[in-house]
Amino acid sequence: MKDFQGKVAVITGAASGIGFALAEAAAARGMKLVMADIEQGALDGAVESLRQQGAEVLGVVTDVSSAASMERLEAATLSAFGAVHLVCNNAGVGGGGCLWELEPDYWQWVLGANLWGVIHGVRLFTRHLIAQGEGHIVNTASVAGLMSAPGTGPYTVTKHAVVALSEVLHGELRNANAPVGVSVLCPSFVDTKIYLAERNRPLPDEKKNDPAYIEEQKLIGEMAGAFFKTTLSPAAVAEQVFAAVEQESFYILTHPGVKDEVRKRMDAILHDGKPSVSGPEAFPLA
Ligand SMILES: NC(=O)c1ccc[n+]([C@@H]2O[C@H](COP(=O)([O-])OP(=O)(O)OC[C@H]3O[C@@H](n4cnc5c(N)ncnc54)[C@H](O)[C@@H]3O)[C@@H](O)[C@H]2O)c1
Predict the structure, then answer these.
(1) Per-residue pLDDT tens digits for 132-158
(2) Model confidence pLDDT, tens digit, residues 196-242
(3) Which DSSP state fits 209?
(4) Active-site annotation, residues
(5) How many angstroms separate the Cα of 15 from the Cα of each of 18, 50, 129?
(6) Which fold has domain 8-202+232-282?
(7) 110 lines ligand 1 (CB under 6 A)
(8) Ligand 1 centre from 54 Cα, in Å?
(9) Measured distance between the N- and C-terminal CA atoms of the chain, rounded to whole angstroms
(10) Distance (Å, whole) CA 284 – CA 286
């Protein structure tokens, strides 16, 4: 897809971070926007700020993990703009912890946002792109979809799945001769609010108001916040995404150092090695 002017972009997780930067980049190219997010207040602010920059924007409060909510997003998009050209299945949450200690509700929360969100986005929007004979889908995975770091289990499982889903989608569209592009975005660290992802986790009031939980989240916010400020900007990621859409690139590796890590993993697979990633500290910073 090379011509964006007047076309329609649907972006999930658009109220913050990479999603908001994708929305800004799409607006700068003259696209009409459907911005979807679970966080009503942040979404309202994000929609307003792009409207003030002159963009035509529809904001839709959406829980990407819910089939019904995503079906409402599809209906709202078609009713407002009658078409959809660029779909960014981007919403996501962090999710770490030791595999034999995590509870099922935590797994469900992370799989719901990070994997079911992409499944629903592909399930609902791809057929419209095929029917109109034009379009591109960008699924946000992560470096964690290419490396398997101890301590990041649920997140890594979802992101490997998003890479696999995107590869299968690419092959199915090619086999169907459908003129629809696919890319999978695999960033390492980006300066967003991902480290505060628990803000969108449905939790019982008892847990949300537990002083120990509040203190733990405050500490994570302070420590991770200082680190994330040193990482790649969401705007730089969004520019790489639009370049990939224009050039029909499939894998978007925003941090060149990721290539060395992929080679190490493939060497281990091909030469009877063992997984060697120590933890998320091994994710390349550049
Ligand atoms: N920041 C990084 O270092 C990094 C690295 C690799 C991949 N990613 C991926 O980038 C994507 C965007 O995350 P970000 O870093 O911009 O974080 P962010 O927290 O700044 O933005 C994520 C957005 O997704 C929304 N969201 C969360 N759950 C949702 C749900 N169920 N339904 C709808 N919206 C929901 C949040 O409200 C938020 O606005 C995620 O898929 C994340 O896994 C981020």
Answers:
(1) 999 999 999 999 999 999 999 999 999
(2) 999 989 999 999 999 999 999 999 999 999 999 999 999 999 999 99
(3) T
(4) 155
(5) 9, 11, 24
(6) Rossmann fold (3.40.50)
(7) no
(8) 25
(9) 28
(10) 6
Share of the chain above pLDDT 70, in %: 100
The span from the CA of 70 to the CA of 91, in Å, is: 12
Give the integer Cα–Cα distance in Å for 196 and 170.
32
Residues facing residue 87 across a β-bridge: 10, 137
Whether 64 lines ligand 1, by a CB cut-off of 6 Å, is yes
Q: In which residue are the tokens 């050209």 written?
A: 85
CB-count exposure of residue 101 (10 Å: 0-12, 13-18, 19+): exposed
Q: How far apart, in whole angstroms, are the C-alpha atoms of residue 47 and residue 35? A: 7
Neighbouring-strand partners of residue 12: 36
Yes or no: say if 35 and 212 are a contact pair by the CB < 8 Å rule. Answer: no
What separation in Å is there between the alpha carbon of 272 and the centre of ligand 1? 35
